[in-house]
Amino acid sequence: MEEDPSNSTTETTILSALSTLTQPQLSHLTHSISSLLRHHCYRLSALLSSPTLFTLALHHLHSISLPQKSLLLARHLLSTLSLLTHSLHTTTTTTTNLRHLDSTLLLLLLCEVRQHYPQALDTPPSQWLPSLSKYFSTTILSLSTLPISNNAILIQYIDLVAKCHRFVGVMGCGGGGEAAAAVAAVVGLPSVEVSGAARECVICKEEMREGRDVCELPCDHLFHWMCILPWLKKRNTCPCCRYRLPTDDVYGEIDRLWEVVVKVSGNKFIGESK
After folding, report:
1. Which residues partner with 63 through β-bridges?
2. What are the structural domains, with CATH classification, of the chain?
3. What is the DSSP string of 224-241?
4. Which residues contact 118 (CB under 8 A, 6 or more apart)?
5. Which among 83, 99, 129, 222 has the fewest CB atoms less than 10 Å away?
6. Residue 246 has what pLDDT?
7. In DSSP terms, which residues pair with 247 in a beta bridge?
8. In the chain, where does DSSP find H-type helix?
């Protein structure tokens, strides 16, 4: 199968970002990734060894729309991408319930089997479990014969992020529009006193008078509180420099974190997460 150029660019970008980490940061990231991958392997193993769990997860996948499937993968991408951006000093909070995790892992497995062993899915869905279990067992057995090293763990992580990145892009179900800043991020913005020469609020074009309390964004730009709050209810970017605040929108948050990764890697941001 011909390699997807965008997937290759994703892998290169992540590798470049990883190269900027110090040894302690890289060790901590590798430990976090290892724990995450072990958890995923445990859940997928439990899913394939339990006909009941498998049937529930498969039924859930069949019952949701393509945009909802894209959202499952996007949430998974966000949780894995946040591990890297946390090491790059950008934090975000992600949570995934077991039902969503099981459905996501099953969806990823189905996509992988469809790519490498398509005839296994030519049977009715009720007969998929044995084929999927055999494929999973063979894959895990192959991996278990390899030495477990930090490089091997990072390669698995990069492959997972690139795969989710590609699938979310192929499904094309992302928001694509502006996302409001997260409530928690807005509440945490500091109020500072204007000092020195008068400054203009770029939103209302009026002067911010000395001694008056105004809002300061993390990028150090100042605005009237009454001006910036309505702005942040609609978008999570600074009106001056386009700095992105965290957002509760999954696709918007992926864009924000991916922009951090691309910036650190030294590559030009091209909006790959769309």
Report:
1. none
2. 5-175+250-265 (no CATH), 183-232 (3.30.40.10)
3. -HHHHHHHHTT--B-TTT
4. none
5. 99
6. 93
7. 181
8. 5-18, 23-49, 51-63, 66-87, 98-116, 128-144, 150-171, 183-187, 225-232, 250-265
For residue 233, how many other CB atoms are within 10 A of its CB?
A: 12
pLDDT tens by residue, 64-87: 998 899 899 999 999 898 888 888
- Please give the backbone phi and psi of residue 243, each rounded to the nearest 5 degrees, phi first: -55, 135
Q: Is 259 helix (H, G, I), strand (E, B) or coil?
A: helix
pLDDT tens for residues 201-222? 999 999 998 888 999 999 999 9
Tell me the pTM. Answer: 0.78
Confidence of residue 3 (pLDDT cuts 50, 70, 90): very low
Query: How much is the average pLDDT of 160-187?
Result: 79
3 state SS of 22: coil
Q: Which residues contact 27 (CB under 8 A, 6 or more apart)?
A: 150
- Going by C-alpha positions, the residue among 200, 178, 199, 189 that lies closest to residue 229 is 189
The 10 Å Cβ neighbour count of residue 230 is: 9
